[in-house]
Design brief:
The chain has 510 residues and is of the alpha+beta class. The chain has three domains: 2-202 and 295-394, no CATH class; 204-292, no CATH class; 430-509, Alpha-Beta Plaits (2-Layer Sandwich). Strand 14 and strand 15 (220-224) form a beta hairpin. Helix 1 (11-26) packs parallel to helix 2 and helix 3 (108-120) packs parallel to helix 4 (140-146).
Amino acid sequence: MKQFQFNYHSTASLKKELRKIKQWCALHITSKMIFHIFSNTIDKDRISEVCKIIKTEIPEAIFMGSSTNGNILYGALSERDISIVCTVCEFPSTHAEILQYHLTNETMHSVMDDLVAKIKDRPWVKGVDMLVTIRGMSMTPFCEALQNVPEDVEIFGGGAFNSDMNDDRSCVFSSSGGYSNNGVVFLLIGGEDFHITTTHVTGWKPLGRTFHVTKADGSVLYELDGKPAYNVYFKYLNIRNDEHFFVNTLEFPFFYEHGGLNLLRAPVSSNPDGSIVMTADIEEDVVARLAYGDPLTILQSVYSSGSDIEEFQPEAVRIYSCAARRTFWGVDEISKETLPFQSIAPTSGFYTSGEFLRTNGYMNQHNVTLVVAAAREGNIDPQKETDFHYDDHEFTGKVSLITRLATFIEASTNELEKANEQLAFVAISDGLTKLYNRAEIQKRIKERLATGKPLSLIMMDIDNFKHVNDTYGHKEGDNVIIGLSDLLRNGIAERNPKASAGRWGGEEFM
C-alpha cells in the first residue's frame, strides 16, 4: 500500500500530482486506487472541478469526500481548503467499492437495509469507511442498523461539517453518486491480504457534580434534575442562550456511560423552553456530568493508542477528529494530538461534526472524540523497526492552569458530595441506632399505601426497659437498644433486603 497526500492549489498543480501517481503506478503492481477528498468549502463548483479532473486523468480510480471543519494532511492541520489523499493498493487480492445514498430520516431504514445486504453479499469486506451529513437527523437508527453488519468488519467514519461551525450546511460526494447535501458515502474495502484496526481517543474528563437526565427525547435534552437543561450551562459556566451558544459549549460536552464506553455529547443549540439540541441522541434516566478537556490525559491517551497502532505496522492511518478538539487546542497546538501518528504511517483525515466507531460490539456516534483507523496490506514484518515519536514535554501555561483548576474543582466537588451524602443520611436516620427515624418510616409507609400494594407492619418494644436503665445505667440501656437494632438490621439483610426498619421512639421499633 502506497499513499500520496497533497493540497489542491490549481488545476495545473492537481494534474501534475496525478501524473506523479500514474508514473509510480506504471512501475509497480497495483490493484485499486482510492482518492479521499477533504474540502473545507462547500463550493459545489470547486469540488466538482476537482472530481472531474481526477476522473478524467485516472478513470479507473474511485473517490469519495466530504466538507470539513479543517483537513488533516501528514498528521497536521492543513492550511489549504481542499486536501487530497490517494491510496494505492498493491495486492491483487484487495477489493474496494464505493456506495452512495441519499440520506434523510425517511430513507434511513431502506438505505441501511440495502447496505447491510450488500456487505453480507461481499465476504471480502473487512472495513467500512463512511462519510455522512448528520446535522438535523437522529443517527440512532443508523447506528442500530449497522449492528447487523458481521462483527469482524471494522466500521468507522466522520460527519461532514462546515468551515463555519454555526452553518448547518455540509456535503458528501463520490465517484458513485456525485455531490449531495443529504447523503452518505461508504467505502467497502478488504481482501485476503488486507488488514485494518481501529481505536479512539477522548481525554475529556468529568467535571463537577452529577446530573440526572430526567427528560430526553432523541437528540433533545429537556431536563436535568427536573429543571431545564440549559440552566446547567448558564448557572455553572455562564454561557448564554444566544447565537454563540454552540461554539461556547463545544469544549464542555456531557459525559455519560453507554455500552461500557464513556460517551460525550455536545450541544448544538438551546431552545426557548430551555431544552438543548444535542449532536447525537442522549438516553433518558442516565447520570451525566459536564466534561472538560485535560491536555495531559489527551496526550497520554494518544501515546497509548499510538503504541498499539505502531505494533499493528500500518501503511496508512485515517483520523476523524471532532471540531471541538480543534477549538479546544487552538490552531497553534491542535496538531499535538495527531502528528504523533504520522511517525508511524502517513496520516490524514479531517475535523468532523461527529465521529462513528464500532467498539465492543456497539456502533456508537461519538462527539469530541478522535477516531483512528489504521490499514495495511500483507503480514506484520517482525524485522521492521518503527519509531513512534511522541513528545509529552511541550505544555503551555494554559495547560497547567486548566489541569490545576479542574483538579481543585473535582476535589471540592467530591468533598461536597460526601458531605451532602452524610447530611442526607443524618436527616432520615436515628442518631443512636443508625436505623431509619420515625419521620422516614412514616414517609415510607405512606408511599407504600399510595401504590395500593400489600403492606405488612410489625411494631415491637422492649419490656421492662426502664428497669434496665435504672439498674445498669443509661449507657447500658443504649447498648441494649443498639444490640436489638443490629439484630433487626442483620435479620432484614439475610431474609428480606427489601424490608425497612426504624426506631419509632424510645425502645419502640417499626
